[in-house]
Amino acid sequence: MKKAIILAVSCLCILTNCKQPKTPMTLKTYEEELHSFAQPNKAVITHLDLNIDVNFDTHIISGTATYNIANNGASEIILDSKYLDIEAITADGKKTTFTLGSFDENLGQPLAISIKETTQKIAIKYRTTAKTEALQWLNAQQTADKTNPFLFTQGQAILTRTWIPIQDSPQIRITYNATVKVPKNLMAVMSAQNPQEKTADGMYHFKMAQPIPAYLIALAIGDIEYKAISSRTGVYAEKSMIDKVQAEFSDMEKMVVAAENLYGAYSWEQFDVIVLPPSFPFGGMENPRLTFATPTVIAGDKSLTSLVAHELAHSWSGNLVTNATWNDFWLNEGFTVYFEIRIMEALYGKERANMLALIGRQDLDEELESLKETPNDTKLKLDLKGRSPDDGMNSIAYDKGYLFLRTLEEKVGREKMDAFLKSYFKKNAFSTTNTEDFITYLNTNLLEKNSITFNTDEWIYQPGVPSNAAIIQSNAFSTVEKTLQSFVDTNGIDTNITKQWTPQEWVHFIRNFQEDIKIEQLQQLDDTFNFTGSTNSYISMVWYEQSILNNYHGNQVDSKISEFLNTVGRRWYVTTLFKAFKRADRLNEALLIYKKARPNYHAVTANTIDGLLGFGV
User: Which single residue of 174, 181, 361, 527 could bond 53 by disulfide (Cβ 3.0 to 4.6 Å)?
Assistant: First the structure.
C-alpha cells in the first residue's frame, strides 16, 4: 500500500500525556486507510480527555472530547463522525471553524477542523443522536434484574465514530482519560482502570494508560456489582447473576497464567469480564482490561468458557498487536483462535481442545460453501474497498486463520512455533502490523532461519483451503459419530454412552443429523434428551436450526424458537436461525418473529438480519 512519513509523538509522550514539542521527535508511517476519513500523515490524535453526561431519559450522551494532537504542519485535522451533532470546536482554546463532508452509509462523514501548524489541542463539544449505532439503550425489562435501565457500547469495527468524534482507524492508537456522569443508582465501567463500587454522586473517572485503537474504547452503565476472582481478575454483572458469573468464570486467573506461560507477561494489569444483557451482539468483545460478554455463555458448568480464553488471548493478538487495517482482520482473529485453543489445551487437555478446533473446522467448511460464489472473500488477506469491514468478520478470518497457524505449527514443531509467536508479540507490542509485514517477519524469524519451506502465499492470498491443511481429529467426536450412526441404523440409542457428554459433543451430534432424518426420529431424540428445553444456549441454537430446516414442530419448539430470538441478541445465534428459516422457505414465519424481536437487537445484529431477510427494503 501507499505509505507516507508523518510526525507523531514519542512513546514516552503518548504514555505520559506530556505536551507535544514543536519539533519532530518520532517519525511513524501510517498506511492508506479504506475505512476512515482521517489523514494521520498530516495530523493525528494521540490522547483523548472525554467528559460526558449520560442521560437515560433522552437517550443522549453529551459532552466534550478533547484531543492532544501531533501536527505535521497541517492546516486541518480530519476526524470521523457518524450521526453526531457537532456543536462547537476549539483549537488551543480558541474557537475554530469546521466542516462536515458528504455522508457515506458505511463511513459516516469526515469532520475537517481548521488548525494552525502549532496547534497542539482540539476540543469538540458534541451530542449523540437517536441514530447512533454504537449505543444500545435498554429499558429495565430488557435486563436480568428488570429494575433499572442499562447502556453499553460496541465500537468494533467502525462504530466508535457514532458516539465519539474520533480518528476511527485501528492503526491510530491513543491513550485516554474520561469523566462520566450517570444516574446515582447506576455504575459506569470502561475499557480502562475501573471502580469496583458505586460512587455516591454518579461521577466516574477513568484512565487508560496504554495506547489503544478507537474501536477498543468501550462504556457500560447499569445496576451492576463486582466480585473478584483473584487480585487481578474479577467479574461485573447484575445482582441476580453475579454469583453465577463468578462461579462460571472462576478459572480466569488460571487462564491468565496459562496464557503468560505461552507467550509472555500480561500487559494490561487487570483482566475483568462484564456480563451484559442478552442483546449484546457478540459472544465477547475484547475491550482491554474489561471484556464484554454475552450471558449465553453462563451454562452452569464452565462448558462454554472457551469464550473467555478467546477474549483473554486478544490481550496479545488484537489489543497488544493490532491489525493495521480491516483487510488484515485475520491477524487479530486467526491468531486469537490459535491462542485460545492452546489455553484450553493447557487447562483442560488436548481432547477438549481438539473438539473446539474440529467444530471450528466444520464452521469453516460451512462458510466456504456459503461463499462459493464470491471466492475472493475466502482469502485471508481481503480487499474491502467500498464495503463494510463487517463483511470480513466471519469464519475465514477466525477458522482459516487458525488452520493456517496450526498447519504451520505441525510443519515447524510446537517449540519453534511458540518461540516465534512470543517474539512476534514482544516485537510488535502496542503497535499495528499488516499481512505483508507479518510474512516478512515469519520468513526471517522462523522459516528461513530453520530452512523450512511453507506455502504461506497460497494460504493468505488464494481462496479456499490448501491441500496441506492440518487434519484435526477427536476421539470423542468419533464416538459421537458412531452413536449417531447406530441411532440411524436401529432407531435406538444407549443413553449410558451420552451421560458424560460435553456440550461440544452434543453440538457435534445434532449438527450431523442425516439430511433425510424423519420427523419421528427428531421427536424421539427430543423426548429422550429434551433438546427443546435445553438450558445450554449453544445446544439450543443448533437444535433449533435443525428443527427449522426439518420442519419439526414437536414439544412446542416453535414457541421456544420465537422466545429465543426475542430474548437473545447474539448475532451468530440469531443469524444462524434466520438463515435456517430462509433455507427452509419459511421466510414469512421469520419476518413475523423478526418484526417483534428487532427492537431488542443491537444495531450490529439488526443491520445483519435486515440484509439477510430484506427487511425494510
Answer: 181
Least confident interval from 1-5, 307-311, 453-457, 516-520? 1-5
* Secondary structure string (H, E, C) spanning 313-326: HCCCECCCEEECCH
Nearest-angstrom CA–CA distance, 383 and 328: 9
DSSP state of 149: -
Q: Which one of 248, 311, 333, 345 is the catalytic residue?
A: 311
Cell of 603: 444495531
Q: State the burial class of residue 60 (Cβ atoms within 10 Å of its Cβ: 0-12, 13-18, 19+).
A: middle
**pTM (whole model) above 0.90:** yes
Q: Are strands 98-100 and 224-228 parallel, antiparallel or unpaired?
A: unpaired
Give the CA distances from residue 56 to residues 59, 60, 237, in Å, rounded to whole numbers and listed in that order: 5, 7, 19
CA 509 – CA 1 distance, rounded (Å): 46
Please spell the DSSP secondary structure of 485-543, one letter per residue. Answer: HHHHHHS---HHHHTT--HHHHHHHHHT--TT--HHHHHHHHHHH-STT-S-HHHHHHH
Span 347-358, average pLDDT: 96
In this structure, are residues 450 and 481 in contact, taking their beta carbons and an 8 Å threshold? no
Q: Give the list of residues 6+ apart from residue 268 with CB closer than 8 angstroms, or none.
A: 210, 288, 289, 315, 319
Burial class (CB in 10 A: 0-12, 13-18, 19+), 195: middle
> Which amino acid is present at 545?
E
Residue-wise pLDDT for 152-183, tens only, equals 999 999 999 999 999 999 999 999 999 999 99
CB distance 109 to 196 below 8 Å: no
Question: How many angstroms separate the CA atoms of 14 and 12, rounded?
Answer: 5
253 noted as active-site residue? no
Catalytic residue among 176, 263, 398, 552: 398
pLDDT per position as a tens digit, 327-340: 999 999 999 999 99
- Give catalytic status of residue 197 as yes or no: no
- Asked if 95 and 89 count as a contact pair (C-beta separation under 8 A), the reply is yes
Burial (CB count <10 Å: 0-12, 13-18, 19+), residue 386: exposed
